[in-house]
Design brief:
Strand content: 15-25%
Number of helices: 8
Strand order of the largest sheet: 1-4-3-2-5-6-8-7
Radius of gyration: 19 Å
Structural class: alpha/beta
Shape: globular
Number of strands: 8
Order of helices and strands: EHHEHEHEEHEHEHHE
Length: about 280
């Protein structure tokens, strides 16, 4: 199902080195993912989250601190798709695969269902592919790729998932089937408020983003819950997986780490959108 990022023709994945009919070839890593990020689309040697950020995010998320968000996303996808026999789920900016892996395991109703994750970070995709391979999720596929030029066919996805990541509304629209859904997650008003209030002089509350041009907002909800962090390692992981690691008052961060206890608000806007002028599934 992957497309060549140069000519947009299908890749023959049965080949040892996947290639399209035009002869463009791409590396398949031993972990199973494809590298479909063209050199001229990179803004640095290793774009996206680095190894340290990916490790911190994986350690934090797999402690299930954000389990309520996983449960809410599952409900949103069910509401969007009903009982689709062959679910095609795409995560644009999937990171180390925590959400996509959970969704596929919870929602896959047949062997025909498949999930595809892309991210510009090679370190993140490598971790995601290792986890999928270890858990024998053969219908979960990953590629290092540009989220503004998704290497998937037109009208191929029932749901596109986007969590805190940049993306192209037009390219997502191209990938979505008629009546399919974009589920977008962005920071809620007081997301990580206690941490921000401690390390910044002032804190602005987040507002829900408006629908992108060409989309209609079908449903929106705000999810708020408290995460109880106990132990320096949990707080270090939270800091390391966010921009807070480089910003804010160093002394305040050290004090939080020394205390090793932090009750912090998690807050999310979850929006279900469909392409304007078409019925949503």
């Amino acid at each position: 199902m992957w497309l060549c990022p140069k000519c947009h023709q299908p890749l023959d994945l049965s080949l040892a080195t996947p290639a399209c009919c035009e002869g463009h070839c791409y590396d398949r890593a031993k972990q199973g993912y494809l590298n479909l990020l063209l050199a001229n689309k990179k803004h640095s040697r290793n774009p996206g989250d680095n190894e340290a950020m990916v490790t911190a995010r994986q350690n934090f998320l797999r402690e299930e601190f954000y389990a309520p968000l996983v449960e809410t996303l599952e409900a949103e996808i069910v509401a969007a798709t009903g009982n689709v026999e062959a679910l095609r789920l795409v995560d644009v900016g999937c990171g180390e695969g925590y959400y996509l892996e959970n969704m596929l395991r919870r929602l896959s109703c047949s062997e025909k269902s498949e999930a595809f994750g892309i991210d510009i970070s090679k370190a993140a995709i490598r971790r995601a592919a290792v986890s999928a391979k270890r858990k024998e999720l053969s219908n979960l596929h990953y590629a290092v790729a540009n989220s503004y030029e998704i290497p998937l066919p037109d009208n191929s996805a029932n749901v596109v998932l986007n969590i805190f990541a940049p993306y192209s509304p037009d390219d997502v629209k191209r990938v979505l089937k008629r009546g399919a859904t974009l589920i977008r997650v962005s920071p809620g008003p007081r997301h990580l408020f206690q941490l921000k209030a401690a390390i910044y002089d002032s804190v602005n509350l987040h507002q829900p983003p408006p629908p992108d041009p060409g989309y209609e907002l079908v449903a929106t909800q705000q999810l708020d819950f408290v995460v109880a962090l106990s132990g320096r390692d949990h707080i270090e992981n939270l800091l390391a997986m966010t921009p807070f690691n480089w910003h804010g008052h160093t002394e305040a961060k050290e004090a939080i780490l020394e205390n090793a206890l932090l009750d912090i608000e998690a807050s999310f806007f979850i929006q279900r959108l469909c392409v304007s002028g078409g019925p949503c599934e």
